[in-house]
Design a protein that fits this description.
Blueprint (H helix, E strand, L loop, with lengths): L7 H26 L18 H4 L7 E8 L5 E8 H6 L1
Antiparallel strand pairs: 1-2
């Protein structure tokens, strides 16, 4: 497998895209549920998928994950991870 490195400018563009997208999603969720939705700025990191468990606290912590495969101009995986407390609120 070929490893592709993303430069800081491209990573900043991805961060901005995720900030805008998550803000729009939070607004839509608030409108659908008629409840306030608090949103923290998402963390965006470029890393090997095998290092994710240690990055989020280890294998002992229960987390919910949504993995999205991207294709086209940018190919790869986007992984959305939330802890048990946030999952139960959703």
């Amino acid at each position: 497998m070929t490893q592709v490195l993303i430069n800081e400018m491209k990573l900043d563009a991805i961060r901005e895209l995720i900030n805008i997208s998550s803000g729009n999603a939070a607004t839509a969720l608030a409108q659908m549920t008629s409840k306030k939705v608090d949103l923290e700025v998402p963390s965006v990191k470029y890393m090997d998928i095998m290092k994710i468990p240690e990055e989020i606290g280890g294998l002992e912590d229960l987390m919910t994950c949504i993995a999205v495969i991207t294709e086209g101009d940018i190919s790869g995986f986007l992984v959305f991870i939330i802890d048990k407390e946030a999952y139960l609120k959703l």
